[in-house]
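From the shared-data thread, chain only:
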Amino acid sequence: MKKDCVAVGLICLILAGLAGADYLATSISTDGSAMLATSGSDQNGSFVSRVMGVDAARLVRTVSGDDGVHDLVVSGSGPVLVSDFASTLLRNPEIRDRCIFLDAGSDRSLGEASVYTSGILQKGEYDASRAIGTDLSGETQVNGSGLLAFGSVGSGNRSLKTRGFVSGNLSVQDFFRYGGRV
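Structure, as tokens:
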């Protein structure tokens, strides 16, 4: 019975990944092991996430194509591996309206922005949300014990680069927004 449920779940995950869905939601609870990988791209940017949980674990993923939102929540009492990356070209469509020297078809890129997180938690919870559009915004919240590397890079007229590394018992909250106003 348990093997049948796992096989049906894997088939559904594979078919959903091939369908190019505008909205995708997956929830997995297991006392064995589970791996979940997601990637996507459009004219605004791209994202990639991979997560693996061993022992008692819960993985929840939602992806919305319309508003570029990618959410990932992972909790486990055993080892959890996470890797998450998102990037975008920062654009400001208002520039075309304000400058008469730009033609209506030009799309002014103000720079690029990317954010990443990767690590291994011995136990704990990882919660990440990314919104990719004409800007890049989101948050990462991690509670538990383990190793975590995270950071972001923004380039263009204003450049900013951040990096962080945490190990041991940890509680991390990382909020970011590139392009636009806070």
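The radius of gyration is 18 Å.
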